[in-house]
Each structure stands twice: as structure tokens, then as C-alpha cells.
Amino acid sequence: MRVKSFIVGLLASNCYVVNDLKFEAIIIDPGFETHKELEQITDYIYENSLKIRLIVNTHGHLDHISGNDLVQKKYECPICIHPKDAHFLGRLNEKYRIIHLKDGDFLDFGKDLLKVISTPGHTPGGISLVGENVVFTGDTLFSKGIGRMDFSGGSKEDMKKSLIKLMSLPEEYVVYSGHGVSTTIGEEKNYNPFLSWF
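^ that's the sequence the OP posted. Answer follows.
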């Protein structure tokens, strides 16, 4: 599995293009706001002969979904999101094919798989995607941080359960989060100050 990250939007969100060795790919959290940002991603896709199969939103906040429409028009692929966050998509729910993801689902692209695990707390429909030695955590877990819980639909109780779930993953797993640099589960267990409350 190959992961390419792009920093996009005013809030410096991470957008990921993930592909297998047969060039099947998905786009995670296309939160870009300009055609220029789209072009850097589409150039990468073209240069690497990738076939985009899915758009996946780890949650419904605008800084992670704002590029859905542009990507869908370009690649004509379904948009995936947890049903509890689907309302964030607005008119896209009627315009495009939406796949509702639930805990335990699998996303397959080529020979690679990502397992969907429900990780609410930042939003009710927050999800993380677990692959071989990697996890995409959206805005649940960051390097030395965790997602905010003071937005509408946020929940400290849910966040605690989600973080416990993520911390049960092997320590060598690389964490690709919604903002900031990548890290590992072990690194966060040892050095994330926000995990001390459970």
C-alpha cells in the first residue's frame, strides 16, 4: 500500500491518495478549496496511472469534504461516509451515489483492504480506516493531540471509547491523521499528553 499526502485548505487538512500495486486507488478526505489544489492531486494521479475507485470521508466537517464535488465530477466514483455524518454532504446526497459505511465494513481497491472502525467523539459519524500496519484516523487522533469535542455532536465519552479502540492497535502501526504529521500508535501511547485521562 502506498500513501501520498497533500496538505489542503485554509485549515491545513491532510488529503490522502492511497493505492495498491495494481494502481487501484482511493482518495481520503479531499478537503481542498481551489482548482489549483485539485490539480496537484490530479497531476499525481495521472503521473502514477492511478484509477480512483472511491472518495472516503473520515467525517463530515467541511475541511475534509469540500473537494468531494470536484473529485466526483473528475473521476465519477462513489462518496463514502458514515450515515451519522451524511447530512454534512447536503445536496450531494441526492446528486451522487453515496455509500454509507459502518463499523466492520471493508473498502477494497485492487488487492488492498481497509477496515472501517467507528470512532465517534469529534463527530457522531467519525470513522478510522485500518490497513496493514496503517490507520487513517481523521480528526480523532493526531500526533500529540486528539480531536476537539466541543463542536455540535462532539462527545467526550465517545472520544474516550474511540481512543481506547485505536490504542489497542499494534504499536508499530503508522497513524495518518486529518491534520499534522504522521506518527505511530506506540509514539502516541508514550508521548500524547491527551491520552492521560483514560
